[in-house]
Amino acid sequence: MTSRMFFTTLFSAVGAAGIVLFGSNAIEANVRPTISTEAKPLPVAVVPFRLETSYTTTTRFLGVIEAASDSNVGFEVAGVLKSLSAREGDFVTTGQSLGQLDIRQQEAALSLATAQAKEVSAELERAKLNLQRIDALLRQGLISQREADDSRLTVDATSARLETTQASVRNAEIVIEKSQLIAPFDAVVSKTLREPGSVMSPNVPVLRLVSVGEREAHVGISPKYADLAQVGETYALYLDDTVISARLRSIGSDVDPQTLTVLAVLALPEGVPARVGQTVAMQFEERVTAPGGWLPLSALLEGDKGLWTVLVTRESDSGTITTARESVEVIYNEGDRVYVRGTVANGAAVVASGVQRLSPGSPVEIVPNIRVIN
After folding, report:
1. Percentages helix, strand, coil for the chain, rounded to the nearest 5?
2. Are strands 279-296 and 52-67 parallel, antiparallel or unpaired?
3. d(CA 139, CA 157)
4. What average pLDDT does this structure show over 318-340?
5. Contact, 215 vs 200, CB < 8 A?
């Protein structure tokens, strides 16, 4: 072996030994523990648990705004619809003409009945004159009593016929009168249900009229609250974002078989901008006696057997703050808060949120709460 080859081999061996030594040190450094054995306290927000003796429940029932009068109006007699003088959106007043039937046939019937009445009236006048002559002859003894009685009965029968024909005249006049559709109250024409040229039967709707002015709220409430409601008292109604105090005008005595609710009718104050068909909600409040307290919904963790758990904070003698588990039962929920009872002591600081990342005994640091629900 030449000297050059000897030195080359020596340098290669030294380099390999260095690489092995460096790799061992690196592996040892990687497996050396780098995590601190001391747990760092997590920041938490807390709310105080205040023990109360009762809570107030809020229940809402949906209803709809109705007009004091909302009717489909039509003719009382049959005929062909000749014209409509009121259209959708028109304001009409009481007694105003809204439409007309073709009355040519009725006018002919009136003319016929009038003529018959005149004819019978003339016959009655003739019968009365004849009776006067008969009575004179009877007094002279020139005719029998039977002939006088026949003359008197003829006057009575003709008088009855006259009354019949006069009733026919009046009936024809009433048919013509009812062939004109009259507004029964001040209203707005909400909808046109028939057009001119339609053959109308009695009481077939032609126009829908919605009265102006007074508005009512028709709300279906449960029988429980129907028993508690007092006619004449005021209750809160929610119309969009507006709260209205409305007087309970009446409450039904029967339960709707479909909705299982009782109809409550409330009179809205004058000037309330409510439209017919608009949705409204009626709110009831009831005080329930039960010990417990309010907590935010975010403070609950699902527990066993229908119970829930919360974490409360406790401070040791050394000043360390840790968490502890308490069990609660939800009695009532309202939005993002719940009324609970359980093992939480009065005045205890309950972790308000983020309880999923904590466990009992975890060290925590209390920070100012951004939002307190109580």
Report:
1. 30, 40, 30
2. antiparallel
3. 24
4. 91
5. no
C-alpha–C-alpha distance, residues 30 and 236, integer Å: 70
Q: From CA 201, how far away is CA 195, in angstroms rounded?
A: 14
263 near 251, Cβ under 8 Å? yes
Chain-centroid distance of CA 14 in Å reads 92
What does the DSSP assignment read for 231-275? TT-EEEEEETTEEEEEEEEEE-SS--TTT--EEEEEEPPTT----
**Both structure tokens of 69:** 């009068």
Over the stretch 248-259, which tens digit does the pLDDT of each residue have? 999 998 999 998
Residue 146 has a pLDDT of: 87
User: What distance in Å separates the CA atoms of residue 85 and residue 207, rounded to the nearest whole number?
Assistant: 11
pLDDT at residue 147 in the model: 86
What are the structure tokens assigned to 83, written together? 């014209």
Angle between helices 145-178 and 104-139 (to 10 degrees): 160
Whole-number average pLDDT of the chain: 85
Cα-based distances in Å from 270 to 14, 213, 275: 104, 7, 13
Give dist(CA 159, CA 282) in Å, integer. Answer: 66
Query: Tokens at residue 3, please?
Result: 């000297």
Token pair listed for 175: 């048919």
Contacts of 180 (CB under 8 A, 6+ apart): 97, 99, 100, 101
pLDDT, greater one: 22 or 320: 320
H-assigned helices in the chain: 3-31, 104-139, 145-178, 223-228
Q: Give SS3 for 320.
A: coil
pLDDT digits (tens, 9 = 90+) for 119-136: 999 999 998 998 888 888
pLDDT digits (tens, 9 = 90+) for 160-171: 999 999 999 999
Q: Under a CB-based contact definition with an 8 Å cutoff, are residues 85 and 192 in contact? A: no
Residues forming beta bridges with residue 66, ordered by sequence position: 216
Q: Spell out the domains of the chain, with CATH numbers in brackets.
A: 43-55+288-366 (2.40.420.20), 60-68+214-286 (2.40.30.170), 75-101+179-212 (2.40.50.100), 103-177 (1.10.287)
Place of tokens 């009718």: 265
Residue recorded with tokens 């109250």? 185
- What one-letter code names the amino acid at 332? Y
**CA gap 148, 140 in Å, rounded:** 12
